[in-house]
From TrEMBL, chains A, B:
Xref: PANTHER family: NICOTINAMIDE-NUCLEOTIDE AMIDOHYDROLASE PNCC, NMN AMIDOHYDROLASE-LIKE PROTEIN YFAY
InterPro entries (alphabetical): CinA, FLAD1_M, MoaB/Mog-like_dom_sf, MoaB/Mog_dom
Gene3D superfamilies attached to this UniProt entry: MoaB/Mog-like domain
Protein's name according to its UniProt entry: Putative nucleotide-utilizing enzyme
Annotated ranges, domain MoaB/Mog: 10-171
Pfam families recorded: FLAD1_M, MoCF_biosynth
Domain of life: Bacteria
Organism of origin: Congregibacter litoralis KT71
Length: 253, 253
């Protein structure tokens, strides 16, 4: 059976506020899940400072290495919103006003309200397109395989709604989980054998200490859903062989 | 007045589970704040897959570029815990058992309970040291300027307690915040002027839409605390000039 090829994305999080610890990122996990629904695997994330050289280096590496490169943050109207300029410089193109974006801003703020600062929000790398935002109207910007999204989670999510079905994705990654209530070190040798016997899946062991119970969630991932249940069954057998309680699915929070 | 030189760190988050969206990272913000308390600036974060080549590339780049390189995740006993091996390969050294770590494990599990899988947790890159964990006993591993921490937040935090005062830090970054209740685009031009007039500080504008109110938190950062209040005062003046309400500090959640 031929497998669909994997389609990958990288993400550049532009955020002094995240590197300073001021803001807890909420976008990586959301984007990762959204990409998975679209059949795209998130391969690498880089969180960089609000610095054109740092942004440019990360964007150029990830747009080259992955099928798609996303950025979050830095597309607002203030002096520290430098994503469009940094990406344009990285791509070697000029920055221009996007006609439709200007019209949207003119409609929203009125002709007099359209200050130079607000016009900044209509700037795109030359030849770039808008990412329509069905939820708030505020668009993102795309140019080639680079997709520039807002950093505010609610607005970023709206922009992703506008991108549904746009990316060329493969089959989404499937997964199944068994939770074993024993220290993961007791299962480790057997798990290694199971992984070696099943190179077609990827087995992850995620230990937890929760409500006084020790255990590990054992996650089996594959693009082909049919490959998962036999491996889960082997893991359950291995758990029973050492007398450990186990259950289907994730441990409860 | 001479400024202390900045001391920097990079972080490599080793985590298929974060790239798949399964787990929400909770370590970046915590480590960022902890580093700041130690006078170290977090310069870049890379989240990479559980893959030796990806880990090695990120570690080699960030340990070269920053004064310190931290990793989180992948130091447990299972087959997918490959951080020590990947870092050793990146550094060009062998992997060995650490005597003291073996003793700790022997004490914890007993001679018979010390299986090959559990012995994995005593492996370090040749010449590496343990990071003592005053909270749980489970140690991290350091080698040169690379510090390998657990991925489970509670254990990572314990290891950081063991590292208090160990890094050579500069003065910690100071910051002050004014919240202005107006769309940030109304303040943008004036803010740019204030930033240009005060290159000694860094001004960040973090817009919010919360409980029906629109505004922006304006954060002024500097290693020298004395430089912050005059800039905050100028921002407040600028807000009052456009008739916008403002308050000291962050907007309330």
């Amino acid at each position: 059976m031929s497998k669909p090829q994997s389609v990958t994305a990288g993400l550049v999080v532009i955020g002094d506020e995240i590197l300073s610890g001021r803001t807890q990122d909420a976008n990586v996990a959301y984007l990762a899940k959204w990409l998975n629904e679209e059949g795209v695997i998130l391969k690498e994330v880089r969180i960089v400072a609000d610095n054109p050289a740092a942004i440019g280096e990360a964007v150029n590496t990830l747009r080259d290495r992955c099928d798609y490169c996303f950025t979050t943050g830095g597309i607002g109207p203030t002096h520290d919103d430098i994503t469009v300029d940094a990406v344009a410089a990285a791509l070697g193109v000029a920055v221009m006003y996007h006609d439709e974006a200007l019209q949207m801003l003119r409609k929203y703020y009125g002709e007099e309200g359209l200050t130079e600062a607000r016009k900044r929000m209509a700037r795109v790398p030359e030849g770039g397109d808008l990412i329509k935002n069905p939820m708030s109207g505020a668009p993102g910007v795309s140019k080639g395989n680079v997709y520039m999204l807002a950093g505010i989670p609610g607005i970023m999510r709206g922009m992703l709604e506008g991108l549904r079905g746009v990316l060329a994705g493969a089959a989404p990654m499937q997964s199944g989980t068994v939770t074993v209530f024993s220290p993961e070190s007791e299962m480790a040798e057997r798990l290694e054998q199971i992984q070696s016997a099943h190179p077609e899946v990827s087995i992850g062991s995620y230990p937890f200490f929760r409500q006084g119970r020790i255990g590990a969630a054992l996650l089996v991932r594959s693009i082909d859903a049919a490959e998962i249940p036999p491996v889960l069954a082997e893991i359950k057998e291995a758990a029973q062989a050492i007398g450990a309680e186990c259950m289907d699915g994730e441990p409860q929070e």
